[in-house]
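How it folds:
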Amino acid sequence: MIQDPSNTQFLSQGGSQVHEPHTSASFLTNEGEAVFSLATNVGNILVVKLPPLGIQGIATQHELRLASMMQRLWTGLVPSMIRGGHEASDASLSLCIHPMQNDLLIFSICRDHKIRVWSCVSYECIMVSDVLEHVPDSTDLQSVPARNHMIRKSLTGNDANTLLLAVYLGFEDRSQFCVFQPVLQDGQYSLLSVASVFIHNDNLVDFSLTNTQIWAVFTTTQGETVVKYTSFEDSDAGWKPVVLSSLNTSDVPIPPYQDPAEAYVQFLFHESGFSLQAISKTLNIYQQSVDSRLGSNVLQQAVICAMENEVQKEVGGYELPLEEYYQLQLKCWKKFCSNCSQYQEVISKPAGILVDSNTGLVGLVKRSNLSLLRPSDAMEHLYLSPGNGCTAVDLSGAPLYSDDPLISKDILTIGECVRLVRQNISADMKSGFQYDIFQSESPENIALQIAGGLFVESSADTSQSTQTASQFIQDLQNRIQGLMEPVRVLSSLLGCIDVSEGQPEALSMEEPFLDAGRHLTCSHLFASENSAVILSEILKQSSLLRYQFCRDLLVLLYLMQKMGQRISLNKECISSLQTDLIPKTSTYLLAYHSMYWTCCCQASQPETNTIESSLRQFTALEITESSAISGAQYSDSSSGSLVELFLHGIGGTQLRCALATSGHIGQESNETWNGVILPSIGVLARLVWPISSSFLFCEFLLGKCQFPQLQEYIRLLNGWCDWNASSRQFILGQCYLNSDEPYKAVDCFQLAAHGVANEEFLLDKLIQTDDGDTRALQIIYYLKVLRLLEQFNVPNLVISLAKTALSMADSKNRNIPTLWSKIFKHHLELGHNQEAYVAMTANPDPVRRKDCLRQFIVVLFERCQLQQLCEFPYIDLEDEVVSIVESRARSVDLMLQNYYEFLYAFHVYRGNYRKAGSVMYEYGLRAGREVPGIQGLQKQAKCYLSAINSLHLVDPNYAWIVKPISLEQDPVDIAGMSPKRSYDGEPIEYSKFKKQVKVVELKDLQKEYMLVSARLKLFQFDHTTGLMTGPSLSADETVSLLVQAGLFDTAISICGTFHLSYNNVFDALSSKCIRISPISSDSDAWNWLSANDTSHLHATTEIRARELAWRLLESYLEKLDSSGKDGYHKVVVNKLLSLGVPLPAWIVHSYKRVNAAELLRLYINYDLLEEATYLSVEYIDAVLGKGKEYFGLRTGLQAASTSVWLPYTAMDQLLNALRESETDSHFQNLYHKLNDKLKAYINTVEIVSKDMEDTARRRAKHAIMQ
């Protein structure tokens, strides 16, 4: 915007006009025009007007000059170089601009002590007034040149439209302020004198005028800056000095354990008051150029790096002893601090002073920054006023003020005594005192030593210093002896120091309800980043001053105690000092020291993972709704103090609400700064004050992850602050947890448990219950802490703390099961299985005990610690163990975890073999259905074997297991029907589903195993078969597959077990025997032959596969159809004949022996008439007794033997068939042969029949005779 050409005007320096402005003024009109007036040393005033911002316009330039026509011509024609550099007597020394009566007027104070007023409309001088008329004894001043005249303006009146002008007249022997009011009378302007204020003849730098006061900044002959103010309305007011902060140039105390770099960095950036600009300029000396705008963090690193380089340069590469190196470090750092001090003095020189008419804010303008001046309260005034500068009038309206003049006098006397003590304590004592306090030393002991040292020094008279000390003690005695009521006054003074005003419990601030108007008023008050810095610095100043006051007061109290009778203190007063005043002063000193530390300590920028971890911790503690952890934004350039961070968050909100409800914001606008700043600091001090029931500040810092800062802050409070002690221990425990010190954290958590029923933070925000029992509250507290510890993976500490909680809990406490569950969980996590089991069994809640048992089983399964899991006694828990493992076994994939095998081992370990068998049977069923391929079959076979083995160990009467299945009475399968409703929309009554129990005995189990084993053999014989997957096979299906593959032994076993016919076996074997090549060896045939037991079928000599196959068939027939009743011979012969294969001799012989008649019928059926004829002839011969052993006949046809029979019908059919073949002579021969044989048989039958009849008659006759 500044670089925009339309917003700038360049003044040409050429020709006859050469401008050398030495003072100026500016004004922004209501129309937006910018008016600049520049006074030169030749007496003219250059007026420049620029158009409104952002609007194109023409810049005008006019020169104002009070001179005759010849002077104007001379000035315009002759250059200033020729005219000479003589300054005009009417040259303006100071200017100001203000509108009046539709005109814009320029007021100037000139070298001739006159005020001239110029019109920017007519560009003429409209008034001249001699200021010396208002100066007493001004006769001699007419010829005296003005030294440093200045003019300033201000507005006053109800409508702030009345203009006041203040003129500073500076002469060599005197100085004076004159206040005028410009008025317009009869068309002429004049100045009415309002007031005249005299001042010492110091070098005025600048001054500012308000409607009632004059603020001025001076520099003394020693170069010191002095700021004073006075009221020009009160002639007796006098000038009041402003106490300015000074640089801390004392030596930096360095503890033995601390590195000098760390100590000096803390001093430079947080304690000394050096600006970043001064430090940046000092770095330039060390060839380190760093822009101060980058922030303190970057500047700190640059300083450390520069000092390390400087030290290494001094060392020069040599090795130095540790002490010499330490001293070299101190030397370099001291030099750097000295350079910073010099630069700070230069850039701190005042350049002006301003007073904001809207807020009353006073600012001291310096070369590099702006310092704000704030009002001081009565306590600061009492402590900082030099000499006897503080009077009772100065304390009026303050808590210290008393209507009793004697009390007021005593208060002032105490203030003088404290200031006297401050003056006699050396800087080393003060820095040592603060260092010892920071190291948690007792302030009472330190103050006692200082007081003892001062008192001892006053007793000796050997040197000038001791004489000074003696004079100090004497002056102190004189003042204290004048006190009327020392105890009362000191108590009143300590009451004013106490931020809580004796009511710490009243400092707990809640979120107030504000109406819309008040909320709008305070919503942005002190909300900026600069406001937080200002408030933090003011609180820092106030805390430091009160800390110093308490320190000096404490020393004074010990001095009073030592003086005793010499200052007329009775025993009661001395007792009050010892028991009340000294402890209180010591406590307030520590409180203000901790508050000062929070203003100095820098907040850190936490990492993202730290913030996320903190949020998880608050969630575990269930305090996520706390407003104290609401977000405060961090500055990208640098991090401010802890108080600044607090003000950006909940602290600023509480501050604004407190101000809105207190009524301070409703004051006049021009009193906002003076009227609000001290109440604001009071509210902020109450929020940070440690002696309070409020725990908002620590809670906020915890939410912002300021863990190291919190540890240090709590360390400063421990030992003396009893308020929120347990809450601080809890917060400290969280800090230790986040600092990876869990053991310290647990100690802190245990200490914090004692105050859960008494402290607001623990009770309302952490515990969040209305239970009034202390033990119950402690148990709830421990549960919260246990959840917090679980975020940090410290199971051993969780166990320890849970046991502590159990030792404190009542037997009826409802949280005992939760504690046992915690102990169980973390013992299990650590692998302490025995301890976890004990904790599980000790849990009184059956539901939690079962949950723990389930987790116990799952974890040990995951760790494969099954033996240990099986061997636990599980008293009264066996059924639940079985139920849990069964549930897990039925709900997970069989290939992931083998719960069935564990159950089998569990039951076997306890001797319950029937349940073990039941488990393995179920396992086998599921393995066959769910596990694909050979793996499932193998698993199923093993399970069935285990089940069979288990049932063999059971009493035969109980060797059975139960297989439950669900059946529906009226099963309906309608597509699209809801599983909850029928097709008609009516709800299904699940009572219709009945549960039927199926009993599986040992023999049934053996049968199922046989089928599974057969499938395994099939897979081993033929890996390409696709029947390894899918549902289980029936016995018939299995036999079909077996005989197809050539596994006849297995097929015969299954047929025998399941009482199936062997027809398929003989039929398939017959086919295979036929298909085997009779010439060459068949490898396929050998494969299936080797799968059967053929060892008894051949000798050691080689044999062909075809021959071995026939022998196998022969052996099966001999084994399974030796009597011929089962018809397996028929199956084989039928198969052979159907395929046109001639019957082997062995099978013919075997068939004749078992069932020759059936063989005859088969011959006839397949038209084998010749074979049938020969068989018939042989059969008839056998019946007649010739070769009967070849047909399985015991006897022939004889009268005395058993009867025999002949398949006459078949033979008759055969004869008929032969008879029909009349054309074939061979068949006719066979016919005659068979026919003749039959006739012979018939004759023999007749003879035998007669013999049998005769024999029967003889037997009957013989029987009758008997």
